[in-house]
Amino acid sequence: MNRIIIAFAILVTCGISAQNMDTYIYAIKGNDTLRLDVFTPKNIKKSDSLPVLLWMHGGGFSGSHRAYPDDNKLVKYAAEKQGYIGVSIDYRLLRKNTVTGFGCDCTKDDKVETFKQAAIDYLDAAKFLVENAKSLQIDTSKIIAGGSSAGAEGILNAVFMKDYFVLDKKAYNNVSFAGLFSCAGAVVDARYITKENAIPAVLYHGTEDRLVPFGNASHHYCNPKKDGYMVLDGSARIVEKLRDFETAYYFNIVKGAGHEIARIPFEELDQIFQFFESTMINNKVIQTKIIKTKA
């Protein structure tokens, strides 16, 4: 399968900016052809092996795309300003054109399956990068898992709940993550965060997010009588686990804010990448909690 995927890679190089972009097919699943855009610093040397930001867009598992302007801007920034390989991926939008969507009318079983398949798609994208690390000039020991909203849920479940969602664990033996960057995300069960899988994390979340819970609460705050009632563990619960395991984190709390905190914090990207420089690359343990109030 991997040989087929590589053979059908689509290459689109843009040489007019400070980074180059290539597009590859990383998987074909049913009617879905899944692609990823790889942004490489224009001044990369043949001997370079660079850290990676592997980004998963939001959209409620029903909309948006890998080249959405904000997501595109982020991975370009990673390549142009930080000397990373920036990657933005497609994944299967399993709630697209469904009657129940992804809210309180969507059954818990459907939600769990959606989270599972999103995590698997993300792991498959990471696996593609690892298998092609030499040609893509990737340092596979320094992959940052990143995403916003639904994408943040996807990456958090891929990082922390692989043992729960994945049957064929051997397929991902060579896939590991060195850091994570989550904007308004949650994990299905924070008890799956262990000392072995805990990694330096940047997390942004609003305390009044009514879609993805800030702490331990129902997804979309659904009533227990609704089919879509499902309790998730948001950023606050994740940070509690990281604190207990003495793992680095940079936690940005916005009091009174809702799901708008899922937006990418472009104004703070320098600080975010400095955190990863200190923790992921220089192995420092830094635990920072920043509390703001919604304007």
How would you portray this structure in words?
Helices cover 29% and strands 26% of the residues. The chain has helices at residues 2-7, 69-82, 108-131, 133-136, 150-160, 162-165, 235-244, 269-281, and strands at 19-29, 32-41, 50-56, 85-89, 138-148, 179-183, 186-187, 201-206, 216-218, 231-234, 249-255, 287-293. The protein has a single domain (43-293), classed as Alpha/Beta hydrolase fold, catalytic domain (Rossmann fold). The radius of gyration is 18 Å and the shape is globular. β1 (19-29) and β2 (32-41) form a beta hairpin. α3 (108-131) packs across α5 (150-160). It starts with a helix and ends with a strand. It is an alpha/beta fold. It has eight helices and twelve strands. The strands form two sheets. Strands 1-2-4-3-5-6-8-11-12 form a nine-stranded mixed β-sheet, sandwiched between helices. Mean pLDDT is 94; it is low at 1-16. Residues 36-153 form the BD-FAE-like domain. It comes from Winogradskyella sediminis. GO terms for molecular function: hydrolase activity.
Topology, element by element:
Blueprint lengths: L1 H6 L11 E11 L2 E10 L8 E7 L12 H14 L2 E5 L18 H24 L1 H4 L1 E11 L1 H11 L1 H4 L13 E5 L2 E2 L13 E6 L9 E3 L12 E4 H10 L4 E7 L13 H13 L5 E7 L2
Parallel strand pairs: 3-4, 3-5, 5-6, 6-8, 8-11, 11-12
Antiparallel strand pairs: 1-2, 2-4, 7-10, 9-10
Percent of residues in helices: 25-40%
Describe the strand arrangement of the main beta sheet, using strand numbers. Answer: 1-2-4-3-5-6-8-11-12
- Termini separation: 51 Å
Number of domain units? 1
For the report, how would you describe the main beta sheet? 9 strands, mixed
Q: Write down the overall geometry.
A: globular
Oligomer: single chain
Unreliably modeled segments: 1-16
Under the CATH scheme, which architecture would be assigned? Answer: 3-Layer(aba) Sandwich
The share of residues in extended strands comes to 25-35%
Report the radius of gyration as a whole number of Å: 18 Å
CATH H-level superfamily title: Alpha/Beta hydrolase fold, catalytic domain
GO molecular function: hydrolase activity
Organism: Winogradskyella sediminis
Keywords: Hydrolase
Protein name: Carboxylesterase family protein
